[in-house]
Amino acid sequence: MTPEEIARTYFRRMRAGERVDDMFTDDAELLGFGNRVTGKAAITEMYQGVQDTATPQPEIVDITTAGNRAFGEVRVALADGSSLHVVDVFEIEDDLIKSLTYFNADYPPPA
C-alpha cells in the first residue's frame, strides 16, 4: 500500500472504532501533545484507552505525501462534542506505520 492508502485506512478504521494498533511496527513511536509512546504493546494500550473514552471521529481535510511519509490534515470530533484540528505525520516502513507524530493545528483563543 502507498503511504496515502495507509493514512486513509488508519483514519477510516479510527472512525469505525476498529483497531489500528496492528498497523504499527513492533518498535513504532507515537509522538504528540507532549507524549511519546514507544513499542507496539504500549501503542495498543494507549489506543484502547482513546477509543474507549474519546471515540474520535476523524474527518480528512487533506492528505499529501512525500517519499515514505503521509501528512494528514483532519478534524477530529470527540465524544464530548468538542473537536480538534490536527495534522498527523505518518512515517511508513514495509507497509506499516513506523512513527506517527501529531500536531494540534488549532489557534489558541484570543486572550
Write the layout of secondary structure elements.
Elements: H1 3-16, E1 24-32, E2 35-38, H2 40-53, E3 57-66, E4 69-77, E5 83-93, E6 96-104
Parallel strand pairs: 1-6
Antiparallel strand pairs: 1-2, 3-4, 4-5, 5-6
At CATH level 3, the topology is: Nuclear Transport Factor 2, Chain: A
Report the structural category: alpha+beta
CATH class: Alpha Beta
- Number of folding domains? 1
| Strand segment tally | 6
- If you compute it from the alpha carbons, what radius of gyration comes out, rounded to the nearest whole angstrom? 13 Å
Taking all residues together, what is the mean pLDDT?
89
Helical fraction: 25-40%
Explain this structure to me?
A six-stranded mixed sheet has the order 2-1-6-5-4-3, with helices on one face. It is 25% helix and 47% strand. The chain contains two helices and six strands. With 111 residues, it is α+β, with helices and mostly antiparallel strands. It has helices at residues 3-16, 40-53, and strands at 24-32, 35-38, 57-66, 69-77, 83-93, 96-104. It has one domain: Roll (Nuclear Transport Factor 2, Chain: A), CATH 3.10.450.
